[in-house]
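Feature request, filed as a ticket because there's no other form

It would be nice if the structure record came with a short human-readable summary line next to the tokens. Right now we just get the raw output. Example of a typical job, pasted below so the devs can see what we mean:
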Amino acid sequence: MQIQKLKILMIGPSESGKSLLANFISEAVNFEDSEPRPTQGVRIVEFELPNLSINDKQCKVDIELWDCSGDHKFESCWPALRVGVNGVIFVCSSNSTNAPRELELLYNYFVSQPKLSTKQCVVFCNCTDGQEDDGVLNLSPSFSRVSQVAINMNTRRDRVKLDFINFVSSILQSISQSDI
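Raw output as currently delivered:
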């Protein structure tokens, strides 16, 4: 079985639910007991996805999920965060008015400059109950080819993990195509 290692950044505005999402996806802590508190700089969560099928081959994927602070006082850390990145998850809240502007800034730095493929990015938009169907944001043209996924950590948790696994598969396919 092939083993892949991926470094994935989880970035977005402050208080958009990045740490909650990272904890849930990685099963790092009991989801129900996690108290929200601002991430200071970055928090790296490591876990694996066993038995992932990519291009009809079974592989195990070791994930380094970098849960990055949305506070701009940590911008001086951005160059180090960007080194060796394989994928970017943009996390925002559907209730945020500044999310489109903030995501555009992050996209330019973490996707455009290192020349990542749009298949190596996804937007997870945290929605409140009843908002899942219209949870896609009106983002800039930079995001026109980036998948946007409406998520709800209260009512659709099982779907969140599937969306994450699909994103990891997209990264791996993009990387394997660039190696050809």
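Something like this underneath would help us a lot:
The chain has four helices and six strands.
The beta strands are 2-11, 42-54, 57-68, 87-93, 121-126, 147-151.
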